[in-house]
Specification:
2 domains; Quinone Oxidoreductase, Chain A, domain 1; alpha/beta; 27% strand; 28% helix; Rossmann fold; binds zinc ion; six-stranded parallel beta sheet; 369 residues
């Protein structure tokens, strides 16, 4: 069937809404009518070519919607409300069996190739294959996704709130959950986009005593305060490392997170961690980016530098937990939505994200008429 989708034809060109062809769901897949889709920095990184996924590509990888058709061998049913996410774990590879489904071999290979295991794509455009971002491609009226990427949520959940569970909330809250934060600890979060704000929430849920949040945008610092940050730092007004040391008796923080995907900011997080502390890379840097750190700090200061992919989340397990926290009022989702767009306005959402004007833009993908 024909549908509208936000297509990036090539890196460095503006994404455009195009009419594309969407095939039926295959075995183990479902067709989801997308209601709301978030716009993530990783989508922007593909537009700029920093994250060189295959093009032409349909952007978007966190959404909410309704299952409208199911392929053979699926348990979901038409009418189910779902969150569409990425990294649909296969359940059978070494990493899935090892309890690390976010590192699933098949799902991550699919995220890079944009194709099913057999090399095909459900999408075509102008007679050639069109690749859905990370097997999702949610900035579109419909998406064909593996059933493991469509997680049921309560029908009464608002679409915008549900959409953000697909990437930003899982990644941010998950990163905090899996980090060695003890009750009362001091935590640093560098970068307050959709992921960073959720690290703040996750750290608060984990019982952090102090949460220091760093971002040059005042509105993002203020939002972080409402989500649990106890101290905020404007890195353009003061040296952020000096500011963090100042706030921690020159000791540094117990756990530091980098949520932008920049090597210099990851070095900042590492340097701001105390002796015996941990720095966690959460933001996604360019694949060819390297980092320089003082080697002596590893043995002499017993520092740990680690990373987390999708917050170490396993969507079938973690999305219901996040919904439960939201239902209980412990997790804020609605305040994360800075602005709403219809699909035709999706390019503006990218411009707003790039300019730092929004935390999360949510695109309503249905027919605006
Ligand atoms: Zn994302
Ligand atoms: Zn697997």
């Amino acid at each position: 069937m024909e549908m509208r989708a936000l297509v990036l034809e090539d890196y460095g060109t503006p994404p455009r809404v195009e009419v594309v062809e969407c095939g039926p769901p295959g075995p183990g897949e479902v067709l989801v009518r997308i209601v709301a889709s978030g716009v993530c920095h990783s989508d922007l990184h593909v537009v700029t070519g920093t994250l060189p996924l295959p093009v032409p590509i349909v952007l978007g990888h966190e959404a909410s919607g309704v299952v409208v058709e199911t392929g053979p061998g699926t348990r979901l049913q038409a009418g189910d409300h779902v969150v569409v996410t990425w990294i649909p774990a296969c359940g059978a590879c070494f990493w899935c069996r090892n309890g690390q489904p976010e590192l699933c071999e098949r799902a991550n290979a699919g995220a890079v190739s944009g194709t099913r295991a057999d090399g095909t794509s459900p999408l075509t455009w102008r007679g050639r294959p069109l690749f859905p971002f990370s097997w999702a491609g949610t900035l579109a009226e419909y998406a064909v996704v593996p059933e493991a990427a469509a997680i049921p949520v309560p029908a009464e959940m608002p679409w915008d709130a549900a959409a953000l569970l697909g990437c930003a909330v899982q990644t941010g809250v998950g990163a905090a959950w899996r980090a060695p934060i003890q009750p009362g600890d001091t935590v640093l979060v560098v970068g307050l986009g959709g992921v960073g704000q959720n690290i703040v929430q996750g750290a608060r849920l984990k019982g952090a005593g102090r949460i220091i949040a760093v971002d040059p945008v005042a509105a993002k610092r203020e939002l972080a305060r409402t989500l649990g940050a106890t101290d905020v730092v404007d890195p353009e007004a003061a040296d952020p490392l000096a500011a963090v040391l100042d706030l921690t008796d020159d000791r540094g923080v117990d756990v530091a997170f980098e949520a932008v995907g920049r090597a210099d900011l990851l070095a900042l997080a590492f340097n701001a961690a105390r002796r015996g502390g941990t720095a966690v890379a959460v933001g996604v840097p360019a694949p060819n980016e390297d980092i320089t750190l003082n080697a002596f700090a590893f043995p002499s200061q017993e520092k740990t530098l680690t990373g987390t992919w999708l917050g170490g989340s396993y969507p079938p397990r973690d999305i219901p937990r996040l919904v439960a926290l939201w239902e209980a009022g412990h997790l804020q989702l609605e305040p994360l939505v800075s602005r709403r767009y219809v699909l035709e306005e999706a390019p503006a959402a990218f411009a707003d994200l790039e300019a730092g004007r929004i935390v999360r833009g949510v695109v309503h993908c249905g027919d605006p008429r």
